[in-house]
């Protein structure tokens, strides 16, 4: 199929020639991928599957929203078709095994809350993540009654996040994270939280099947030492799926400028209080939550 005949939307029109080439290669492989994912289902290659609200039909994948979802798998693997094949197959298999609908019903609010601040000039959502806390806490299985419950709670949260996108005009967030509680000096982080291996295993499992959808990750209220090492962190492998990585210190004017340059269409309840948000001593997270209660 020529590019002129491809079903298009706002997001597919941004694909590069290289991305279109690998997308077509992955797309024609869908029947084989579905057969590998569901070896016990005789009609596997004929049965569409819905991922994040988008129908993936292995025999008729010529749909713009389908192309956008498949491109997420390709981009997560640096446009490697064999790696994207494996990840898509494993994701199909995993989603068939876990009870996503049960998790959504059991935990209707998910696990953590974020706040919508507005939209950038291309319509991406700009969200404020829950404030990062850096106290010495041990993330252990103590007090966790059911690891499967923890897994379902995380599934509910991330599934709802992915369902926020329409995969026509948006499939990425811009995320702002408040690091005000990070110590002013590096030695203040001598004791980092300890994570139980079982909880870490759940985290790694969930992260494998919910692709990162962050266009720009912005840290604000970072101490100076963190700003100085931010370039190193930006190049870390765990951030490879993030388009841009920005770190802003604790200067009020710098934070104000960053917010104004990113948020093209602010949410009314937030935009009217940007100045107040910057000038007060409370964290940005605390103030926004207060306004929206």
Fold blueprint:
Layout: H1 17-28, H2 30-37, E1 49-51, E2 54-56, H3 64-76, H4 81-97, H5 100-106, E3 115-119, E4 125-128, E5 138-139, H6 147-163, E6 173-178, E7 194-195, H7 197-209, E8 214-220, H8 224-234, E9 244-247, H9 252-262, E10 265-266, H10 268-271, H11 274-279, H12 284-292
Parallel strand pairs: 4-6, 5-7, 6-8, 8-9
Antiparallel strand pairs: 1-2, 3-4, 3-10
Helix pairs in contact: 1-3, 1-4, 2-4, 3-4, 5-6, 6-7
Structure description:
Helices cover 44% and strands 13% of the residues. Helix 5 (100-106) packs across helix 6. The model is unreliable at 136-142, 237-241 and 288-293 (pLDDT under 50). The protein contains twelve helices and ten strands. The strands form three sheets. The protein has a six-stranded mixed β-sheet with strand order 9-8-6-4-3-10, sandwiched between helices. Strands 1-2 form a two-stranded antiparallel sheet. Strand 8 (214-220), helix 8 (224-234) and strand 9 (244-247) form a beta-alpha-beta unit. It is globular, with a radius of gyration of 21 Å. The protein is of the alpha/beta class and 293 residues long. It starts with 16 loop residues before the first helix and ends with a helix.
Sketch the major β-sheet.
6 strands, mixed
Count all strands and give the number. 10
How much helical structure, as a percent, in the residues? Answer: 40-55%
- Stretches with pLDDT under 50, minimum 5 residues: 136-142, 237-241, 288-293
Total DSSP helices: 12
Radius of gyration equals 21 Å
The helix-and-strand class reads alpha/beta
